Amino acid sequence: GQNIDQPTEMTATEGAIVQINCTYQTSGFNGLFWYQQHAGEAPTFLSYNVLDGLEEKGRFSSFLSRSKGYSYLLLKELQMKDSASYLCAVRDSTKAGGYNKLIFGAGTRLAVHP
Amino acid sequence: DVKVTQSSRYLVKRTGEKVFLECVQDMDHENMFWYRQDPGLGLRLIYFSYDVKMKEKGDIPEGYSVSREKKERFSLILESASTNQTSMYLCASTLSYEQYFGPGTRLTVT
């Protein structure tokens, strides 16, 4: 079956570091995405990992281990505006119509407090 | 800047009504998607299209149909709306791997 797990909710303090984990079991794998979604808004792209290791982009970093079926999103120097849901999504390598489908986790709601 | 727009932000319909949700993208993307988003379930793919007049079922196509007559426009149709179709509907488009999402339509079926 196909399954993507991430914590439902997390809280953290402004200025701190938080790590949001994602584990996945899919029939195929062709990359993992992280999206940010503020309440009532569209998801926006944060990162894409296709090879093992850490990808750093400013205050946000994303890590992937394909052998463990595991990824995390690391947010540093947290700001109040980082309060949002963070969606983990796996690109399934099974092709339909020439396209790799995205399978989303339920999302992690992060609350940053002063 | 990629822009994906959806016809309505909020919509209230009655059970049994035919509902049209429209999505337009301005970046000449070939692939377009319709998802619904429900608390605790994440985004679930309803249908997608990889070219004009081409469509593929996603994970939850029952009760929905789609239309792609022009490259920039992808419509989601609820033939006979039911209360269990109350949800947030998100449209997305992509050229290669990153999906760009529209603002969403919150549909309530009463």
Describe the structure.
The complex is a heterodimer of chains A (114) and B (110). Chain A is mainly β and 114 residues long. In chain A, 0% of the residues lie in helices and 61% in strands. Chain A contains no helices and 11 strands. Chain A has strands at residues 3-5, 9-13, 18-25, 32-37, 44-49, 53-57, 60-65, 70-75, 84-96, 99-104, 108-113. In chain A, strands 2, 4, 5, 9, 10 and 11 form a 6-stranded mixed sheet that branches. In chain A, strands 1-3-8-7-6 form a 5-stranded antiparallel sheet, with no helix packed on it. With 110 residues, chain B is mostly beta strands. In chain B, 0% of the residues lie in helices and 58% in strands. The model of chain B has no long low-confidence stretch (mean pLDDT 93). The chains are: A mainly beta (114), B mainly beta (110). The interface between A and B is medium-sized, with 25 and 25 residues.
